[in-house]
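Exam revision sheet. Question 4 asks you to relate a sequence to its structure. Input first:
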Amino acid sequence: MSFQVHTTTSAPSQSQPILESIDQTFGFLPNIFGVLAESPTALQAYTSIMESMKHSKLSPIEQQVAILTVSTYNGCTYCVAAHSTVAGMVKMPDTILNELRAQQPLSDPKLEALRTFTLSVVNHRGWVPQEDILAFANAGYEKGHILEVLTLVAQKTLSNYVNHIAHTPLDAQFSSQRWDPPHSS
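Answer key, structure tokens:
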């Protein structure tokens, strides 16, 4: 079964206004949204989380740390390329971005605490050990940050899995950040 990358005109009618808004916001329609448009429910869920994160306690760089941690963990080549591009737009230091893409510990201790906590969430499927929660809190994060990390994990798991199933083609706008997961030996 193949998935169509919808445009603002080919998408189901309920998805069309959302796609038009995304196109206006980004200046183009990223393929992930065109794929999600097949289900207005999935598209609305994804974009609702995206919109709500504008009011996050996590900074834009911290959001991208969590997003890239989940996406590299899940081996989502599309999301890693797209969010590597976004990371540059929010002025993430190149060193941090390169460490995230290589799935290495981060040189910034607070961001490393965020990366480690995010990995604990996905590794333990939400059953995060108390010591990992305490380490996250000791780095300066609060309960609201925990809930926002969980929100980003949910959002990125949705898009990562959609991209795996749909084989979403990488947009030209993200091609300079193409990423291939490290091969295990």
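Marking note for examiners. The chain has two domains: 1-55, 57-177.
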